[in-house]
Amino acid sequence: MFTLRKKFAFAxxxxxxxxxxxxxxxxxxxxxxVHGALVGGSGWRAVYDILSKDGYHVTMVQEPLTGLTEDxxxxxxxxxxxxxxxxxxxxxxxxxxxxxxxxxxxxxxLVYVAALQPDTxxxxxxxxxxxAPPNDAMRATPTPxxxxxxxxxxxxxxxxxDVAPSDAQFLADSQQQLAEKALGTPVSVAAWRTKPSYAxxxxxxxxxxxELQRWMYQRSGAKVTEIxxxxxxxxxxxxxxxxxxxxxxxxxx
Length: 253
Fold this sequence. Notes:
By secondary structure, the chain is an alpha/beta fold. The chain has helices spanning 2-27, 45-53, 68-80, 94-101, 124-128, 152-159, 165-173, 180-184, 210-220, 233-236, 238-250; strands at residues 30-34, 57-61, 86-91, 107-113, 147-148, 178-179, 197-202, 223-227. It has one domain (29-250): Rossmann fold, CATH 3.40.50.
């Protein structure tokens, strides 16, 4: 009888362990990452790898950067593919995108990575003009059809000063240009007003002024992590960026 009880107890422990492991798997959050202007989602590979290894399901949005409406629509399509609670991450201009797309009820937290964080009725360009960046290259290079890009020769010093030269050159030569109208369209809703937001403030940023970042994140009450990094913090400090995203995910339980 004693042996039978021991066998039953052992079987029960195994079953409970399996159930707990299954619950752990089910508890993993969906992370949707929206890249910023000028660079695509491939630059986020290191962050993606860390989050995936830690058990998160990560989706990268490749928005067209042709306008705020189109970019929000691309993000919503990615949100529609998710099954569980979502942490929505935006870098740079994509902060405006997640501010609108984040109103979806499935989105539980927002993470702004050196990102714009507009309020209802504010446009990205309006915010960028509030505090002049240390480098005016972003304003100096429109194309004839009203798209913005950075001259490759100035890309590293402006965007990615703490990234290896070869990697910065690849970013410069594979730029995805941003439509001027994307900067001029005001957001229709500010999801951060009703949902927790987390922010990474990059103190060596020459694209989105650190002063502007601080002002926006204080206004929203975001939980701020300051990093001594360039605008390309998702490459130069991938582990820290991933940790902030995971912190946001943990708080949605």
